């Protein structure tokens, strides 16, 4: 019933809504912490995160994929999103500075 174009637009709408929701529904948290959480999410889904992985994924369709390319796709499309969830949560709860070194060492796992 719905084609690829509609699916892409639905994804765009959901992604936009995620930023809207964090910005509008987060209560009793300082604006600077909300902005840091939103920036973390934006970085994860942007050109250096999900989009980069998706480009390589699309370009790899029907081809033999190297382990290096597969790891790149997984890091950019999956790991970056999980990482963002952890870091955004820490920013919002105000705990980021307490364990920043340990958390920063976790990036890229």
Briefly characterize the structure.
The protein is mainly alpha-helical and 109 residues long. The protein has five helices and no strands.
Q: Using DSSP, what is the number of strands? A: 0
Proportion of beta-strand residues: under 5%
Helicity, as a percent range: over 70%
Supply the number of structural domains: 1
- The H/E string reads HHHHH
Highest CATH level, the class: Mainly Alpha
For the termini, the CA-CA separation is 39 Å
* Tally of DSSP helical segments: 5
Roughly what is the average pLDDT, rounded to an integer? 88
Please name the CATH architecture: Orthogonal Bundle
CATH topology label = Farnesyl Diphosphate Synthase
Low-confidence residue ranges: none
Structural class: mainly alpha
- Rounded to an integer in angstroms, the radius of gyration calculated over CA atoms is 16 Å
GO molecular function, one term: prenyltransferase activity
Family: Belongs to the FPP/GGPP synthase family.
Keywords: Isoprene biosynthesis, Magnesium, Metal-binding, Transferase
Cofactor: Mg(2+)
Task: List key phrases describing it.
Farnesyl Diphosphate Synthase, flat, transferase, metal ion binding, single chain, 109 residues, prenyltransferase activity, 5 helices, mainly alpha, 75% helix, Polyprenyl_synt, metal-binding
Structure description:
By secondary structure, the protein is an all-alpha fold. The chain has a single domain, classed as Farnesyl Diphosphate Synthase, CATH 1.10.600.10. Helix content is 75%, strand content 0%. It has five helices and no strands. The protein has helices spanning 4-25, 31-45, 50-60, 67-93, 100-106. Helix 2 (31-45) runs antiparallel to helix 4 and helix 3 (50-60) runs antiparallel to helix 4 (67-93). The chain is flat and about 50 Å long. The termini are far apart. 15% of the residues are buried. The model has no long low-confidence stretch (mean pLDDT 88).
